[in-house]
Design a protein that fits this description.
Blueprint (H helix, E strand, L loop, with lengths): L1 H18 L11 H26 L5 H13 L3 H27 L3 H25 L5 E2 L2 E2 H17 L2 H12 L2 H33 L3 H20 L12 H6 L6 H8 L3 H10 L2 H30 L5 H29 L5 H20 L5 H33 L5 H55 L3
Antiparallel strand pairs: 1-2
């Protein structure tokens, strides 16, 4: 047992060494050269982060469009589909924190490119599994094919979890505190854009070529994007001979002298303990993030199936309606940042609580909207769009900007990863819980489940709101 544990430790060390960030390089450029290099570097970093995170969703959100086909062609129940989808979230939950810790010390270029590469391969193998595994073979009472597909989808989840921590590190080190909120809001729209394009691409591919194509084609696209990421990504500015971003923009470091002196005497583990594990606000944010993800993943992953089965929409119409969720989410992301900065003087919680109430109202409106009249169809579009709009703010604030700003920049990836563990526990709960509610209480039970999650999140965040965050 001890030998096995030591082998695991050695394997972990080998992984860390492979991804190890390059050493800092002394600044030898003059001010004009630094300004030009920073401008080019920021363009490369932002384009890589934006494009990379957009296409990550091609190989993550494609399963939502494929659920009806997987149900009809493979005969899986809603609970089995929930287990299949949750295999990604289970791996993502643990991977986001572990990979967040690695990302803080890793070369962002290697880290993100490797993640997208293996995620792409996992999608292709997921789609090819039914051609290899007989559908009538069982393992522990479950179809062997389901187990194999869940394994590949879980592998996909692990490497998907490497994307966000690497990007969070890049944004934290390439933009100063006074710039980061705006840049983070702009970058976050890549999530909604990627989700929207993933739904449209997967829906079109499935209607033309079958469900397998919705995994193979995005996998091939993302393999090609890996080339762009590897040739345009950089690690921290200081690793390519540029000054720290705070020195460059404001003539001073991010930390106060007292904080800098204190952190200089602490190891990475000690900083992690202080600003993440022993930070009460971080725990509250993490707990709330659980229910943000119940709402987010429940609506993103199941609304197409809800529209097809309960409202009897065609897959094409259901996909079109679902695209309003990420499209409105882009507006929600941008406006949430504007509202918090301009109306609430930089406070995040007032906007977060208002947006959470908006999620509940829109889900209830979708549930209570019946009929096939033009007005009913428009209301469906607006309610689904509203869900996307109002989900964007809590997603961006609770486990993102607030997590980074509550701790230290030196553990930015770990902080978002820590909240991400809880967020993706919520995603697992969403997948299995939604499937259970559908099978036992009907579709209305599933939608009430999402509404309850929104109100629980509000209750958890009230202490943070009272602190003036």
């Amino acid at each position: 047992m001890r030998a096995y544990f030591l082998r695991l430790v050695d394997m972990f060390k080998s992984i860390v060494n492979f991804f190890k960030a390059p050493d800092d390089v002394p600044v030898t450029m003059n001010d004009e050269q630094v300004a030009k290099a920073y401008k080019k570097g920021r363009i490369d970093i932002f384009s890589s982060c934006f494009i990379g995170y957009t296409v990550f969703h091609f190989t993550r959100k494609n399963i939502a469009t494929a659920l009806p086909a997987l149900s009809s062609e493979l005969g899986y129940t809603n609970i089995q589909l929930g287990i299949l989808g949750s295999s990604l979230y289970f791996a993502y939950a643990f991977g986001k924190f572990i990979n967040g810790v690695i990302a803080d010390k890793a070369d962002a270029k290697k880290f993100i490119t490797t993640a997208l590469f293996i995620s792409s391969l996992a999608n292709i193998l997921f789609a090819l599994s039914p051609a290899i595994i007989p559908p009538d073979k069982y393992l522990f009472g479950q179809p062997l094919l389901l187990t194999v597909m869940a394994f590949f989808w879980g592998v996909n989840g692990w490497f998907q979890s490497m994307g966000f921590p690497g990007i969070a590190k890049s944004l934290a080190f390439w933009w100063s505190n006074k710039e980061r909120g705006t840049v983070w809001s702009l970058w976050t729209t890549s999530h909604q854009l990627g989700t929207c394009l993933a739904f449209l691409l997967a829906g079109w591919l499935i209607s033309k070529y079958g469900w397998q194509s919705a995994f193979i084609v995005p996998g091939i696209i993302n393999l090609m994007v890996c080339i762009y990421l590897y040739t345009h990504m950089h690690d921290k500015p200081t690793t390519i001979g540029l000054p720290d971003v705070e020195l460059y923009k404001e003539g001073k470091k991010d930390e106060t002298p007292e904080q800098e002196d204190e952190e200089a005497s602490l190891s990475y583990i000690d900083i992690l303990k202080k600003y993440v594990f022993l930070n009460p606000t971080m725990w509250i944010l993490a707990a709330a993030f659980t229910f943000v993800y119940v709402c987010r993943c429940g609506t993103e992953d199941w609304i197409i199936k809800y529209l097809v089965e309960f409202k009897h929409n065609t897959l094409e119409v259901a996909t079109q309606k679902q695209t309003f969720l990420p499209m409105f989410g882009i507006a929600g992301t941008l406006l949430a940042g504007v509202f918090s900065d301009k109306i609430f003087a930089g406070k995040r919680m007032p906007v977060t609580l208002i947006f959470l109430a908006g999620i509940a109202i829109c889900v209830f409106g979708l549930m209570e909207n019946h009929g096939n009249s033009t007005l009913s169809i428009i209301i469906d579009y607006l309610c689904i769009g509203g869900i996307g709009f109002f989900t964007a703010g809590p997603q961006m604030f609770v486990g993102g900007i607030c997590a980074v700003e509550t701790g230290s920049k030196k553990v930015a990836s770990a902080a978002t990863g820590f909240c991400g563990i809880f967020g993706y526990f919520g995603a697992i709960l969403s997948g299995i819980g939604t499937g259970y509610c559908i099978d036992h209480f009907g579709w209305n039970g599933a939608l009430y489940f999402w509404i309850a999650a929104a109100f629980l999140c509000i209750a958890i965040l009230i202490p943070v709101y009272k602190k003036g965050v």
